[in-house]
Amino acid sequence: MMNTSNNNYLARALGAVLLVAMLAGCGFKLRGSDGQYNVPFQSIWLSFNEASPLGTELKRNLRAGDNLRIESDASKAEALFDVISESRGKSILSLNSLGRVREYSLSYTLVFQVRDANNRQLLAPTEITLRRNIAFDESQVLAKESEEALLYRDMQSDLVQQILRRLVAIKPLAPVTAPATPAAALPTP
Fold first, then answer.
1. Residues 6+ apart with CB under 8 A from 162
2. What GO cellular component is one of the record's annotations (predicted)?
3. For residue 99, what is the domain's CATH number?
């Protein structure tokens, strides 16, 4: 009886190892799981303020990816990333029986669009809003301020990953060409 259960366990373990080996051998991997994002353009200009922590983290992630250049001059870039608005918010989520704040809701909202060098929209204005709840204790104000800053940094990292996924999903537009002149309209020599 004991030998049969050991054999069943060994057969299951061997089956699991074989399954993992087959998946690894076929080259299966999740898109972006290796930190590489293949965006459909070679260069991008970002309209973030120089002091923007979100802009700095997005630049760092874009540079770590494939061979995408981040241009400081918009006229040299194939894609233009326009920040329409960026805001952080804090609102009261709940009160205790004495009317004091028990929980806050933190929010981080970014509205942006992506255009090509010919000013055509590659990505329409897009809004990403992230929310996190934080319990509040007035006897631990400094600790809660640190926790709040940590939550905003976490939302910022999440926001960067969502932006990267949207940039990868952009479908490149056909190049702009001049309209063809019909042969009948050409003058004869």
1. 128
2. cell outer membrane
3. 3.30.160.150
What separation in angstroms does the CA of 64 have from each of 23, 32, 43? 26, 12, 14
* Residue 78 belongs to domain spanning: 31-171
Element (H, E) at 52: none
Average pLDDT over residues 81-97: 95
Average pLDDT, the chain: 85
Give the Cα-Cα-Cα angle 113, 109, 69 (nearest 5 degrees).
45
**Cα pseudo-dihedral 69, 70, 76, 82, rounded to 10:** 140
Number of domains in the chain: 1
Residue 93 lies in a domain: yes
4 vs 9: CA distance, rounded Å: 9
